[in-house]
Amino acid sequence: MIDLRHLRCLRAIHEKGSLARAADTLCVTQSALSHQIKGLEALLGLDLYMRNSRPLRLTAAGAKVLEAAQRLLPEIEALEEDLTRMAGGQSGRMLIAIECHACFEWLLPVLEGFRSRWPEVEIDIRVGLSFEAIPALQRGLVDLVISSDPVEAGDVMFAPLFGYEGLLVAAPGHPLATKPLIEPEDFRDQTLITYPVERGRLDVFTGFLGPAGVEPADVRPVELTAVILLLVASGKGVSVLPDWVLRAAARDTNLARRSLGTQGLHRTLFAAHRTEEAGRAYLADFIAAAREWNGGRAD
């Protein structure tokens, strides 16, 4: 069977013009190189070089093998280099699934710096609301999941990024804006403006209203954070957003912010990845950059 060694021998002889110079290039003896060629000829049952020709001249069969060598070897060598760089952590793939709309407020700035440091890492983002993100991670369909809901899975690690607090946000003149303590009952007559995701992925329901058995008067789903803030400022309802969203919006709005309950609604954001990939340098760099973006606070 023809192997890469045979192809490299023919290419070297063609490029160097003689067996002696080709042997030097390949770091073998001239005898060993000649033996390789004769072995391939015996395997094929065809002569690759015209006998007693000076300089060496390929037969039709030899020209066909050389053509294949010149076509295939660059691709194979490029593949070997790519795999070597991947093994060394210099390149790779990071397909990210996000389980929260608001994550874009900090993720995009973090990724901008990441791309400049790791230009050979392929990056893509999927909003993990229409599929189960952790099973997709386990199957290799994505490489990183941003989530606030860690689960027990031996093949998945959850690296804490930073803690955050879900805050009530209301217009300055809203009755809840001056209330010292926000209780679940305060939402019974309110329109709650949320992201358009199932309640099981909204902290205000899972950690505050649900346990108290309270249902808002209305729930209005809105896709964009900027539109949520605009509606709240216009008195169309109230919302509960992560503190990082409100810090980013503080320059442009005077909306009132209040903690929920006596303890506040505190959660931790995680980056989930496959356990076997914990040593990847670019993955560790992303996690460190995310923590640094939030002032290094990770619960």
UniProtKB/TrEMBL annotation:
UniProt subcellular location: Cytoplasm
This protein's UniProt keywords: Amino-acid biosynthesis, Cytoplasm, DNA-binding, Methionine biosynthesis, Transcription, Transcription regulation
A GO molecular function held by the record: DNA binding
One of the GO BP terms on file: methionine biosynthetic process
This protein's GO CC annotations: cytoplasm; protein-DNA complex
Domain HTH lysR-type, first and last residues per copy: 2-59
Main localization of the protein described in the UniProt heading: cytoplasm
PANTHER family, per the entry: HTH-TYPE TRANSCRIPTIONAL REGULATOR CYNR (PTHR30346:SF28), TRANSCRIPTIONAL DUAL REGULATOR HCAR-RELATED (PTHR30346)
Family: Belongs to the LysR transcriptional regulatory family.
Protein name as it appears in the record: HTH-type transcriptional regulator MetR
